[in-house]
Automatic annotation (TrEMBL):
Family, per entry: Belongs to the COX16 family.
TM helices/strands, residue ranges: 21-40
Region (Disordered) residue spans: 91-117
Chief localisation class: mitochondrion
Lineage of the organism: Eukaryota, Fungi, Dikarya, Basidiomycota, Agaricomycotina
Membrane topology note: Single-pass membrane protein
Function in brief: Required for the assembly of the mitochondrial respiratory chain complex IV (CIV), also known as cytochrome c oxidase. May participate in merging the COX1 and COX2 assembly lines.
Compartment annotation: Mitochondrion inner membrane
Originating species: Lentinula boryana
Keywords noted in UniProt: Membrane, Mitochondrion, Mitochondrion inner membrane, Transmembrane, Transmembrane helix
One Pfam family of this chain: COX16
Protein name (Swiss-Prot/TrEMBL): Cytochrome c oxidase assembly protein COX16, mitochondrial
PANTHER family documented for this protein: CYTOCHROME C OXIDASE ASSEMBLY PROTEIN COX16 HOMOLOG, MITOCHONDRIAL (PTHR17130:SF14), MITOCHONDRIAL OUTER MEMBRANE PROTEIN 25 (PTHR17130)
Amino acid sequence: MTRFESKPLNPTKLNRAVQKNPALFGIPFILLMVAASYGMSTFTQTRYDLHDHKVKQLTKAQELGLDQERKKFDIREEYFKLSSQADENWEPKRIRRPKGLPEWGVPPTEPSDYKKS
């Protein structure tokens, strides 16, 4: 099988040179990738240095050792703790019912007669 070569109508010098030697296109691309890798390494190193510096900074409380075994204050937790303590010391007491009221409450009333139209 024969190969069909593509020939542009008006070939330029660059087009002819790339067809004869394809490395003219590939070598600058590879050089660009290598140079970008070295260029980006400085930015990456700066990023990690800043992150490391932030992690190593100590607050005043950490320097003095005040944060050891200290629990963070939460108002909701304190509310529930105090409300549970108030509910522990009580007993249900039965009071005397008013006169004429049965022990199990008021009996239901009889429905009135409805007038049918």
